[in-house]
Write a structure and sequence with these properties.
α6 packs across α7. The protein is elongated. Helix content is 71%, strand content 0%. The protein contains 9 helices and no strands. The chain has one domain: Tetracycline Repressor, domain 2 (Orthogonal Bundle). It is an all-alpha fold and 195 residues long.
């Protein structure tokens, strides 16, 4: 709902919460800190989101949909090209010293409500499904070894990218993300020795 000033406070609150979660985690902000950042009073935020859990769920849901749309628009002639483009979606926050929003929420898993956890689970399920599909395409096209299990590859790839985001933050090197992706892609392409 837009205020007479023309500001879309609800959207601004979601964006500020998203950045706060990616920077400090799901428990690393309050309505007061967001209100100060936006130059509004905390009751203004309560008008849009009565509880912090509601704001978290909304921020994660928006992030999930935006990320899914970005993944669906990835293009490339080979599975490797598409998977490298997928990894670049994780490198982008690393370049700004941010975490994947859903990965940051997982770090506070037991402090979040069931609706937020459900959105996070949907995020990871979306990514797993897409990655497993790409791995299957890569196997069928001869880009990946036939011994690669698509579900295992999907789980390993997303875990490697989430872990690489942590390492990128510690080492101040966003290059950890594409390096992790390249390593797994190279391993998936290795053909077992003829027996």
């Amino acid at each position: 709902m837009a205020r007479p000033s023309g500001r879309d406070i609800r959207t601004e609150v979601i964006e500020a919460a998203t950045k706060a979660i990616q920077t400090r985690g799901a428990s690393g902000f309050s309505y007061g800190t967001i209100a100060d950042e936006l130059g509004v009073k905390a009751p203004t935020i309560h008008h849009h989101f009565r509880r912090k859990a509601e704001l978290l769920t909304t921020a994660v849901g928006d992030y999930r949909v935006q990320f899914r749309d970005q993944v669906q628009s990835l293009d490339g002639k080979t599975a490797r090209t598409r998977l490298e483009a997928f990894a670049a979606l994780f490198q982008a926050p690393a370049q700004r010293d941010l975490m994947c929003l859903c990965g940051a929420v997982v770090a506070d898993w037991h402090g979040t409500d069931s609706a937020t956890r459900a959105e996070v689970e949907r995020f990871f399920n979306d990514q797993h499904e897409w990655l497993a599909s790409e791995a299957t395409r890569a196997i069928d096209a001869g880009e990946f070894s036939s011994v690669v299990d698509p579900d295992t590859f999907a789980a390993a790839f997303i875990a490697a990218l989430e872990g690489a985001l942590l390492l990128a933050r510690v080492s101040h090197d966003p290059g950890a993300v594409p390096a992790a992706a390249s390593c797994l892609l190279d391993l998936a392409a290795i053909r077992p020795a003829d027996g």
